[in-house]
Fold each of these.
Amino acid sequence: MPVALMVIQIVISIALILVVILQARKSSKASGIFGGGTTADYGGKKGKEAFLMKLTTVIAVLFMLSSLLLSLIK
């Protein structure tokens, strides 16, 4: 069971990395790299951007839940 959860954790981790990399950043300034974006960056997402944002949220929640599960089992 723990080995299967570790494999699932690795797959979720890779998926999360890929989804985050796929997202386009609108801010071209250096402050955007460190999370210095404005609240205007989050409004009015359409199409692919909205889907990627929701997918990132879902995968991040799955990552947190699998991490919790792994820590409770070990």
Note: The helical segments are 2-22, 48-73.
Amino acid sequence: MIEGYTALLDRRAVGCGYEALVWVTLSQVTRDSMTDFEEAVGGIDSIVEVLRMMGQPDYLLRVVAADADAFESIYIDRL
């Protein structure tokens, strides 16, 4: 059975030609801290994938931006 459909976008055409992987280690790993973190990053449109890791680091984020300067702004101001 068909589980779904996928659209593949040209990231450069939509202004997201820069991609970075960001490792995240929480200062405390509790159910509440993980829930809080996941809710916070869920509100950042530039984060297109969040993977929960087992051990250190706690998360791997895939972040897209227009360029390195735009990524740095997301990293400094949002993360």
Note: The helical segments are 31-42, 68-77.
